[in-house]
Amino acid sequence: MVLVSVRTMRRPKEICFLDRAHVTWDQDGQQRGWPWLHFLKAKNDRLALRGTRFWLPLDTSFSPGMDVAQAFRDWLAWRGDGPGPLLVDTMGWQIQQPHLCSLARRIAGIAGLDGIYTGYSFRITGASLAAAAGLTTAEIQAIGGWKSDAVHCYIRSLGSACAGASRLMGL
User: Which domain, by its residues, includes 109?
Assistant: First the structure.
């Protein structure tokens, strides 16, 4: 779930709307190559009635040391091929936005990070990692679905965090 959220940089609601039927593969429908996810754009569409659909591949373009496609195949093996929501918990219940918020807070707590963390934290992380990996603003906008310069509000500087800027500032 974290991998899909960070890699696709999609809004939490768009992540939660994913269904097993929204997954395809780029080679003969077999689980080889990159998985493609069929997203429903959900901004300003709380009930997902008017959203447009688009395909987004899960590749390894900015995930060094991790085979994203294999991790996704492992997830599908655990989840099974049956119909229904793509992202489910251990009881088989569909993941909702509060689950993403809780997961973001849990990960931050384990990492010893203070701050406010929500489901959008994965979107911010994806955009920041993409920028740090050298993707252009246009590429990040295309993946994350930003149509304006609002994408710059999501990209955080990793340099100051890695250098311990807060500690150096006495915070």
Answer: 2-168
* Secondary structure tally for the chain: helices H, strands E: 9, 3
Q: pLDDT tens-digit profile of 145-171?
A: 888 888 888 887 655 555 554 555 554
Whether residue 129 has pLDDT greater than 70: yes
Q: Which domain CATH number covers 33?
A: 1.10.443.10
pTM of the model: 0.76
Question: Which residues, in sequence order, are bridge partners of residue 40?
Answer: 53
Overall number of domains in the chain: 1
- With a CB cutoff of 8 Å and minimum separation 6, the contacts of 73 are 31, 35
Distance CA 45, CA 98 (A): 18
